[in-house]
Design a protein that fits this description.
The complex is a heterodimer of chains A (370) and B (398). Chain A is of the alpha+beta class. Chain A is built from eleven helices and ten strands. Helices cover 52% and strands 16% of the residues of chain A. In chain A, a hairpin with a 2-residue loop joins strand 9 and strand 10. In chain A, helix 1 runs parallel beside helix 4, helix 4 packs across helix 7 and helix 9 runs antiparallel to helix 10. Chain A is globular and about 80 Å long. Chain A starts with 6 loop residues before the first helix and ends with a helix. In chain B, the strands form three sheets. Chain B has a four-stranded mixed sheet with strand order 1-4-5-8, with helices on one face. Chain B has a four-stranded antiparallel sheet with strand order 2-3-7-6. In chain B, helix 1 runs parallel beside helix 4, helix 9 runs antiparallel to helix 10 and helix 10 packs antiparallel against helix 11. The model of chain B has no long low-confidence stretch (mean pLDDT 95). Classes of the chains: A alpha+beta (370), B alpha+beta (398). Chains A and B meet through strand 9, helix 9 and helix 10 of A and strand 9, helix 10, helix 11 and helix 12 of B. The structure holds flavin-adenine dinucleotide (FAD).
């Protein structure tokens, strides 16, 4: 057993952290959040140049063959910086789905463009019913000559407003099928919805949208299998970002508790604050170590269905807990937009829903156990 | 023992309910679901608040509970509770949290006759709005350490310093201020209470945005602001005791519980009419339990509020200090629980702010953010728990 990171991994973490703290301060984060695009094309170009987007690229397609845990390192740092970018939608959700189900040609083409920073993608799975299950996918795909015609509405599609291409899960005669659709195709109407995360959650309406038969990811009817396989990894990656958010919340709160004085002493001297913060550290430590364990299992090619669910449910609750106590310990300043802890408090709620809420994952664990 | 309301009290409650139901028909969309956000975030919301305030003033309801010699009716506290309950369950504005909720009681306790006439009358008529100038950047929980000075200069006081988190400071006409009149003294000694107008030369108001971007509170800067000595309330240098008495006025917390009941009603409607995975949310045992748990908390909290009002009515303002702190802690933390459960129950929709897609007009996700202000403001949960330990249990103070 060796629970340390390699020196290359330490360097990766340091370089990501340094880049984000230099290029994307929390002030900048707030500015980006308030923009219609919800991301900075300039910074996106820079991180493409730095090679972050290659992190999931297998060696056979020109990548460095990074282990999965390296993606987690990047996600943790993104989470600490509260960095708003299409990294999750494009690299994690779409990239991992293409890796799981795409043809060699698609991998080469799409992943190549993603890595170069030239292609943004979004995964359109959920619909008006907001179900995480297979039965929740009802957008229809009907074959007509050499094309499919898509009709229906997708909801909560992250970054659809800036994406060039969408992966659309639709119901075809043989079952759930994944389609690769140009975001600008005729008949698509995309509207950004206002959220607590101030992120790019979109409603996407498909009105007789034509897609070529050639633009499927995987075979007709095996879309759900691909989604499920990719889902475990997507969850663990998202948990990396959330655990990073926990760490930032914890650190900035501890710093504040040492510095803020009331009644002539630092508020960190009050035992109630110490106990809150001890519980926060406990919540963080249990989460971060489990995160690494599950990420390692993925690198060992083990099945992590129930572990990924356990991790997400754990992190959902702990991120909310840590950031909520963080705001409370900050007092008045914690509730304001000028201070930064609120960024994490809002994200903890927003990310609770990403790739399954706690109730969905409790049920998955129970189903795996019983 | 008898929990029943008298026929007179029931009739009164019906009268309040009818009034607020009628009044709320004119609420502009910007007012949203009321509360501090509804009243202070937009000019439309504030205008509506002022209109309702005037109507309440015409009815004489703003001053019902005041003693007769102050122009009120000396109505019993329990009737005040019924009034608050009715207003808050309709999410109606019109009562100025600061002017009516805090400053009027201060004036009743400490003002001289001239001040009562001059300052209480416009409050009774609903013609004036106040903000509360207490907290400072370095003095929050430890309010008594505040440093803003008000130095006597002939017939005037000259004010210098800074206040922060001043809710509604950008809209209110007046402020009641706690400042240091004797800079030689420390902590609770040497503080005094003042009334002042917000448009005086030397006052600057700078907005601070709430975490969701709304403009509720402010920083207020004072540079050589001159106010007449007749606007000192009570005895010079005795302001701390007066302020503590103000903190103890009507603190049943009934508002938390009646608003929570309204939230729960809407949430129940939502789960009964919304399907997921082929079933109504109301059929999901996990959701059923969450809703049942909220119901329990609302029941016991509401009942505690009545007990507090009854205790206060019997024994005076500070009689129920520990129980009042319990209601504040329980009510504000329950609001947080309601918002969290509701947004969990809504699933992916739980993250949506006010928009055509958002269940309950996004009120629960808004509340998820605003509730943190309530567990911090007006004595944080930690400070309230200290009070409960000391006064409720007699545990030693450090
Ligand atoms: C939404 C909102 C509206 C407000 N409106 C007004 C207003 O209109 N006018 C006004 O004057 N003020 C207003 N306030 C300010 C409010 O009264 C203060 O925020 C509050 O008193 C806490 O002070 P602080 O923010 O300086 O936090 P601090 O006092 O610095 O507290 C920071 C943390 O330390 C804890 N802490 C402090 N002392 C102790 C202790 N002895 N034991 C244990 N824990 C402790 C606190 O509970 C908190 O968790 C408002 C605040 C908010 C959030």
């Amino acid at each position: 057993m060796d629970l340390s990171f390699s020196s290359e991994q330490e360097i990766l973490r340091k370089s990501v952290a340094e880049f984000l703290s230099k290029e994307c301060s929390y002030e900048k984060v707030k500015e980006i959040e308030e923009s219609a695009e919800g991301y900075s094309p300039k910074l996106w170009k820079k991180i493409a140049q730095l090679g972050w987007l290659e992190i999931i690229l297998p060696e056979e397609f020109g990548g460095f063959g990074d282990p999965f845990i390296n993606l987690i390192i990047i996600m943790e740092e993104i989470g600490k910086a509260a960095f708003p970018s299409p990294f999750f939608s494009t690299v994690v959700q779409s990239g991992l789905t293409i890796l799981e189900g795409g043809s060699t040609a698609q991998k080469k083409d799409l992943l190549g463009k993603i890595v170069d920073g030239k292609l943004l993608m979004a995964l359109a799975q959920y619909e008006q019913e907001a179900s995480y299950l297979e039965t929740g996918i009802n957008l229809s795909a009907k074959l007509s000559g050499d094309d499919y015609i898509l009709n229906g509405t997708k909801m909560f599609v992250i970054d659809a407003n800036i994406a060039d291409k969408l992966i659309v899960a639709a119901r075809e005669d043989k079952g759930i099928t994944l389609f690769l659709v140009d975001a600008g195709a005729k008949g698509i109407k995309c509207t950004k919805m206002p959220t607590i995360g101030m992120d790019n959650n979109c409603e996407v309406i498909f009105d007789n949208v034509k897609v070529s038969k050639a633009d499927l990811i995987g075979e007709p009817g095996n879309g759900w299998k691909i989604l499920q396989k990719a889902e475990a990894k997507i969850i663990v990656a998202k948990c990396g970002e959330m655990v990073g958010g926990c760490k930032a919340s914890l650190d900035m709160t501890a710093a504040y508790a040492k510095e803020r004085k009331q009644y002539g002493v630092p508020i960190g001297l009050f035992q109630v604050i110490q106990h809150y913060m001890s519980n926060m550290l406990l919540a963080y430590d249990t989460s971060v170590n489990y995160l690494y364990k599950v990420a390692w299992m993925i690198d060992e090619n083990e099945d992590v269905t129930k572990e990924a669910s356990a991790l997400k449910a754990q992190v959902n609750e702990k991120y909310k807990f840590i950031s909520e106590r963080g705001v409370q310990i900050h007092g008045g300043v914690g509730t304001s937009r000028e201070f930064d802890i609120g960024l994490f408090y809002r994200r903890a709620k927003a990310y609770e829903y990403v790739a399954g809420d706690s109730d969905y994952h409790y049920e998955k664990i129970a189903a795996a156990l019983m | 023992m008898d929990f029943k309301l008298t026929e007179k009290q029931k009739a009164l409650k019906r009268e309040f309910d009818q009034f607020f139901e009628e009044v709320m028909k004119d609420a502009p969309p910007e007012y949203g679901r009321g509360g501090l956000e509804g009243v202070y975030a937009t000019p439309e919301g504030f205008e509506f608040h002022l209109q309702v305030s005037k109507k309440l003033g015409e009815k004489g309801w703003l001053s019902r509970a005041w003693p007769k010699e102050c122009g009120g009716e000396g109505a019993p506290l329990i009737e005040q509770l019924l009034f608050n309950e009715s207003r808050e369950s309709h999410r109606a504005p019109g009562v100025d949290l600061f002017g009516h909720g805090m400053f009027a009681p201060t004036l009743i306790i400490a003002a001289n006759d001239e001040q009562k006439e001059r300052l209480l009358t416009p409050l009774a008529k609903g013609k004036v709005s106040y903000c509360q100038g207490w907290s400072e950047p370095d003095s929050g929980s430890d309010l008594a350490s505040l440093q803003t000075t008000a130095i006597k200069d002939g017939d005037n006081y000259i004010i210098n310093g800074q206040k922060i988190w001043t809710t509604g400071g950008h809209r209110a006409e007046c402020m009641f201020l706690l400042a240091r009149t004797n800079p030689e003294e420390k902590r609770g000694k040497g503080l005094s209470v003042f009334h002042l107008r917000m448009d005086l030369p030397g006052i600057t108001v700078r907005p601070i945005l709430y975490m969701d971007g709304k403009h509720l509170y402010n920083e207020v800067f004072f540079k050589d602001v001159k106010i007449p000595a007749k606007d000192l309330i009570g005895t010079e240098n005795e302001g701390w005791k007066l302020t503590r008495d103000t903190m103890n006025f009507e603190r049943s917390g009934v508002g938390f519980f009646v608003e929570g009941r309204e939230d729960l009603k809407e949430l129940v409607d939502y789960v009964k009419t919304t399907k997921r995975n082929g079933k109504y949310l109301a059929e999901d045992p996990i959701i059923r339990q969450k809703i049942a748990k909220l119901f329990i908390d609302l029941e016991v909290g509401y009942t505690l509020a009545y007990k507090i009002a009854w205790l206060q009515g019997k024994g005076g303002l500070s009689f129920a200090a520990s129980a009042a702190s319990e209601a504040k802690v329980f009510g504000s933390e329950l609001a947080e629980r309601i918002a969290n459960y509701a947004t969990e129950i809504m699933g992916l929709y739980g993250q949506l702010s006010d928009s055509k897609w958002a269940p309950m007009n996004g009120s629960m996700v808004e509340s998820y953010q605003f509730c943190m202000g309530i567990t911090v403001a007006a004595g944080s949960s930690e400070i309230q728990r200290n009070i409960i330990a000391w006064t409720g249990l007699g545990l030693p103070r450090f």
